[in-house]
Amino acid sequence: MKPIRLAWIVAFFLCAGLGVFAQTASQTAHAKKASEIASTFAFEPLDNWKAAVLAGDKTALANFYMTSPAARAKTPQGKTKDPSEEPAFWSSLHGGGLTRLDVKVLEAKTLQPGVKALVLRFETGVKTGGEEKAGLISGAQVWVQRLGEWKIVRTQRSDPMAKEFMRLPEPAKPNTALYPDPDEVPAEIASALAAASKDHKRVLLVFGGNWCYDCHVLDTTFRSKSISPLVNANYHVVHVNVGNYDKNLDLAKKYEIPLDKGVPSLAILEADGKLIVSQKKGEFESAVRLGPEDVVEFLKKWKPQHGS
Q1: Which of 125, 7, 144 is nearest to 74 (CA)?
Q2: Which of 9, 14, 112, 182 is the most buried if burial means most Cβ atoms within 10 Å?
Q3: Parallel/antiparallel/unpaired status of strands 235-241 and 202-208
Q4: Of 294, 282, 169, 298, nearest in space to 234 by CA
Q5: Full set of structural domains in the chain with CATH
Q6: Which backbone phi and psi does 283 adopt, to 5 degrees?
Q7: Can you tell me the distance from the alpha carbon of 280 to that of 299, in angstroms, rounded to the nearest whole number?
Q8: Percent helix, strand and coil across the chain, each to the nearest 5
């Protein structure tokens, strides 16, 4: 599935006039640093929205969307200003046999106090003929707090599709701060290289972004019980945020990462900064195509040869 990123939805929202909403947003809301929202991101309005979807309650869902000005949506069929379009779509899933809805927040940004933008992955279970089939919808939402209430003002979603089986471990709750601010990456690489020069490990650069579910899956794999000892013993991992493929392009070029092949994409450095290897063909771009043995093979092949 082609991932949904915040670029369109945020740009469209900003052009519509963010300042108008800022005047009525709660003045007590404050942006949090990425380190503060790491894997503990929670947002009660989204939980309530999910409950309304599961119940198939179109009226309750409609109350989550701004009506003045009307919430706008980007659907697979195009852009619409119809505020009833999203409530109609999501409430219809219940009638189609929806029994399970797992909402995973991949990326969360506070655009300003009282304005949140979310990149989401909706994993569904639909029961038909006594059998539950796993489905998937990718999406994004912008929420605005007005007079103490959170309302959705912009949305984007994909078509529903079958969820493919993965052999790699998937995150129960993705870390929305997995990839730091793009401007922080050079300093993080420098710090990792300094540490590697002392403990004789190598530096593993993982190019990607928080919007990228495959990036979250790879990180979960690195942290898994069977693979984390291999990672920890041999590498310092640095996540290189590429934004919407418009950030840290100099680093991608320097370390020979062709971003047009997708992310996550890996490069390994010696402690002196010398490039050892970089993925040129999008080898890890699709988590569906990978198994734990593929990740282990890569990590073992390029680990430092201690004592040689």
Answers
A1: 7
A2: 9
A3: parallel
A4: 298
A5: 6-162 (3.10.450.50), 182-301 (3.40.30.10)
A6: -60, -35
A7: 16
A8: 35, 30, 35
Please report, for the chain, how many H helices and E strands are present, in that order: 9, 11
The pTM of this model reads: 0.90
Cα–Cα distance measured from residue 302 to residue 274, given in angstroms and rounded to the nearest whole number: 13
| Residue found under tokens 């899933």 | 93
pLDDT of residue 26: 36
pLDDT at residue 23, as a whole number: 41
Which residue ranges of the chain lie beneath pLDDT 50?
Answer: 14-38, 308
State the pairing for strand pair 115-128/98-112.
antiparallel
Whole-number pLDDT of residue 129: 83
Residues 6+ apart with CB under 8 A from 21: 114, 115, 144, 146, 153
H or E element: which one contains 117? strand 115-128
pLDDT tens digits, one per residue of 174-214:
999 999 999 999 999 999 999 999 999 999 999 999 999 99
CA pair distance 295, 222, nearest whole angstrom: 8
Judge contact between 275 and 297, C-beta under 8 A: no
Which has the closest alpha carbon to 152: 63, 82, 77, 79?
63
> Residues near 200 by Cβ (< 8 Å), separated by ≥ 6?
271, 304, 306
Distance CA 63, CA 81 (A): 16
Identify the helix (H) or strand (E) that includes residue 134: strand 131-146
- Looking at residue 9, what is its pLDDT? 57
